[in-house]
Amino acid sequence: MKHQIIKSIVSIFVLLLPVMASAQEVVMDEPILSRHWGDYILLAIVVVVLIAAFSAIYNLLNLMVKAREVKIYEKHGLESFLEEKRLNEGSWWQRFSRRMSDIVPIEKEKDIMFDHDYDGIRELDNNLPPWWLYGFYLTIAIAIFYMGYYHLSPYGKTSTEEYEMEMEKAAVEVEKYLARQADQVDETNVIALADEISISEGQEIFNTNCVACHLSHGGGSSVSVGPNLTDEYWIHGGGIKNVFKTIKYGVPEKGMIAWGEQMRASDMQKVASYVWSLQGTNPPGAKEPQGEIWVASEEEEASSNETPVDSTGTTGMN
Question: Any idea what the CATH number is for the domain that residue 253 is in?
Answer without folding.
Answer: 1.10.760.10
